[in-house]
Every structure is written in structure tokens, then in C-alpha cells.
UniProtKB/TrEMBL annotation:
Signal peptide: none
Stated family: Belongs to the short-chain dehydrogenases/reductases (SDR) family.
Transmembrane domains' residue ranges: none
UniProt superkingdom: Bacteria
Name of this protein: Short-chain dehydrogenase/reductase
Length: 264
């Protein structure tokens, strides 16, 4: 099928690399107008320019409530509505069980959990006005399996998964579907610092790092192939489209079977 999101307006947080950028790309190809957010204005604007007239970049930090609210209000003001919100932004959080500090906890909560809770909050009114909508939250298999992330990251992602399911129950009567995606080990720049330019000097360095990462991650699934950002983007497309009309309060695990390999 084509044009599965024709006429839809979508916000994708963390849209300046990896899964967010791949999802923006596929949403636009399927007919959506996309607002992508991120902290790097240079990268965000470059991606919006590459994607064309149906892409718009807003500089935003999802750990700040004001930025979340402004992103949604600016989107509605500019494009008249909001159909899809993909709460995708995130990243690693620090601290081990015997050394974690309040700062680690506060940062993790703001980045991974509050950003989702507040994103949902501010999306409700414009989606109600629109007669419904779709909210997708990016969580992780760390929420359901040990040793897929550190303890704080895993606990916060588990909270996102559970909040998603309960939010879908509350918002379903309004025509707002709320689902989440739990990616497995996906080959994206987050593995070397969350940025395609982190700790590297050239595009060639980045390409070499990504190919090495793909080879290593291929060993971590029964399929013996690496997960790519596009695999998660395709899941986000399905959930956002009318094909997913009867899917609500669901956690879509996209991991190549990785979670079935770990029983700890």
C-alpha cells in the first residue's frame, strides 16, 4: 500500500538521527506532514531540508515541559491539527545500583518517562478536537528482559510500557490509540554516544563503526541479521496507519526474537 498517512500531521521527537530520522523519512513518503524535533538545530534543519516541503524542524529538548508544550502548540498553529505523536526521543542514562545518584535518577526520569507522560498530556486536546489520533511511545526490550540496559534505564522503560497501556484504556473512548514499540538491539548511532558524529572525525569513520556494529548485533538474534532503524520505522508506520485501527494499549516488540534468547 502507499499513501497510508496521506493528509496526516505527525510529530516525531528525537527526529535528528537513528529511528526518529528513519521514521520521518517513511512517514513523509507515505503522505504525512512531519514535524521533527531534537536539540541539534544544525542537524535537524539539514534533515528537514533533505526531506522537503512536508518536513518542519523545531528545536526542542524533551526533558523540558515548555519545549514539549511549545512543539505541540506550534504544530497545531502551523498545520491546523495533530494526528500522530511519536514519543521517540531518549538516550542512555547513568548510574549503577551501588553508585546511582539523585542527579542520575532525575535526569533519567525527565528524559525517558516525563517526556512521554507530558507528550501524551499535551497531545490530548488537539487530538480530541481532531476526532482522535495515534500516540506511539518508544520503549525497549530492556523493560521486559534483564541485561538489555542498566537498571535505571530498564525500570524507566518498563514504566513507559505500563503507562502506555493504561493511557490507551483512558484515551481509547476519545478515539486516541496509544501503543508502544520495544526495539531490540538496533544498529543506530546511539551505541556510540547518541550521535552520528560522536567520537568520530569523518563520515567514513561513522560508516565503518556502523558496519562493525551491524556485524556484532547480527549475532544477537535468532535471525542472524542486525535490526535497523527502518525496522522500527516500519512498525511505527503500521501503528500510525489505518491498518492499526484496532490496536491499542499494545507493546509491539521488534527484536528479531532476541528476547526469547534471554531467560535471566
Amino acid at each position: 500500500m502507499t499513501n497510508r498517512l496521506q493528509g496526516k500531521v505527525a510529530i516525531i521527537t528525537g527526529g535528528t538521527s537513528g529511528i526518529g530520522e528513519a521514521t520521518a523519512d517513511i512517514y513523509i513518503k507515505e503522505g504525512a506532514t512531519v514535524v521533527l524535533t531534537g536539540r541539534s538545530e544544525e542537524k535537524g534543519q539539514a534533515i528537514a531540508n533533505r526531506l522537503g516541503d512536508k518536513a518542519h524542524y523545531i528545536k526542542a529538548d524533551v526533558s523540558k515541559e515548555e519545549d514539549i508544550a511549545n512543539t505541540i502548540s506550534e504544530t497545531v498553529e502551523r498545520f491546523g491539527k495533530l494526528d500522530v505523536l511519536f514519543n521517540n526521543a531518549g538516550g542512555p542514562v547513568g548510574g549503577t545500583i551501588d553508585s546511582i545518584a539523585p542527579g542520575d535518577i532525575n535526569y533519567g526520569v525527565d528524559l525517558l518517562l516525563s517526556s512521554v507522560v507530558l507528550g501524551i498530556r499535551y497531545a490530548i486536546e488537539p487530538m480530541k478536537a481532531n476526532g482522535g489520533g495515534v500516540i506511539i511511545n518508544n520503549t525497549s526490550i530492556a523493560a521486559i528482559r534483564y541485561r538489555q540496559g542498566n537498571l535505571l534505564y530498564s525500570a524507566l522503560k518498563a514504566a513507559v510500557t505500563h503507562y502506555t497501556k493504561l493511557a490507551g484504556v483512558e484515551l481509547g473512548p476519545l478515539g486516541i490509540r496509544v501503543n508502544c514499540i520495544s526495539p531490540g538491539a538496533i544498529a543506530t548511532p546511539i551505541f556510540w554516544g547518541g550521535s552520528a558524529i560522536a567520537n568520530t572525525k569523518t563520515d567514513e569513520d561513522n560508516a565503518r563503526k556502523l558496519e562493525k556494529l551491524k556485524a556484532n548485533l547480527a549475532k544477537a538474534t535468532p535471525l542472524q541479521i542486525p535490526g535497523l532503524a527502518e525496522d522500527i520505522a516500519n512498525g511505527a508506520l503500521f501503528l500510525a496507519s489505518d491498518e492499526g485501527r484496532f490496536i491499542n494499549s499494545h507493546d509491539l516488540v521488534i527484536d528479531g526474537g532476541r528476547t526469547s534468547m534471554f531467560n535471566e
